[in-house]
């Protein structure tokens, strides 16, 4: 099936006999056994639930993976991922990461004896590998600087050294980018964002190419317990049904807004991977079929950045991204505030940088909103 059809029909499995078009919300913590030593396939919802199973199989199909495991948040998924590693293991990560991921690595995983190195290019990732390295972790596009990393090139490095390649695919989703087909082993999603798409549910998903890794992740989910609830599973299933049309529309609007921003005298730099001026535009064309709806842009001074945040009316000043409502974020004070200032500044995340998640509003209304905020 084409990806648009998978978004709507998922695994196409019927879980009841009523003919319900939508997957039911199985709000049951436990399931009765037909007899001793017998099971319906569902025993206890921490282990598996029919609604969550439908979501997991849908996302696994979209990404082309052997299986998926859904968690109560993106950070829940990232935390479970780290349970694959042991004290003394080393992970090489791209240096432009979501602040929550960086904080998890440095404050939780490091406490448990896992060490990390951060590198900014494909060659830098290779140079950071040590005998203790077990995995390479990348985001692409990166949050918030919108750098694009060549997944296939990094996969070659990972394969050469016998390492797992983990890719955070939150920004582009499997609709625009499928890292497993490019050589990745595990894909991470904050399902809160584009998969859910309506700013009304928290979720995280891990998708594995290999069934053995998937079984290990299922065991981790079972024992740590941060699994996605039936109701939130339903909300993410509902969101995925419109993923294709949302991603196309948000991208279309993002291109218009990015081009407009690039012409404004108050704006010094626009980071949007769909602009031909983006340094990794050709890599994007090669490894993805779209550019998404995320834009970061820098103003010439901090005062203008704050003015925009405080005067937008349609666009809302809030954390998160990927929903139908356009949101603007101040990374240095919000998503990346836990990263030490010197590291933030070195990566370009300063007091003049704003991150914009394009929603489904009219492009002209969003541009008018930004214009009046700049002129306020």
Description:
There is one protein chain. With 376 residues, the chain is α/β, with parallel strands linked by helices. It folds into 2 domains: 3-241, Aspartate Aminotransferase, domain 2 (3-Layer(aba) Sandwich); 244-375, Aspartate Aminotransferase, domain 1, CATH 3.90.1150. 38% of the residues lie in helices and 15% in strands. The strands form 2 sheets. A 7-stranded mixed beta sheet has the order 1-7-6-5-4-2-3, with helices on both faces. It has a 5-stranded mixed beta sheet with strand order 8-9-12-11-10. α1 (3-9) runs antiparallel to α9, α3 (74-82) runs parallel beside α4 (99-109) and α12 (302-311) packs across α14. The mean pLDDT is 96.
Distance between the termini: 50 Å
Fourth-tier CATH superfamily name of the largest domain: Type I PLP-dependent aspartate aminotransferase-like (Major domain)
CATH class of the largest domain: Alpha Beta
| Average of the residue pLDDT scores | 96
Structural class: alpha/beta
The number of domains: 2
What is the CA-atom radius of gyration, in angstroms?
Answer: 21 Å
Q: What's the story with the biggest beta sheet?
A: 7 strands, mixed
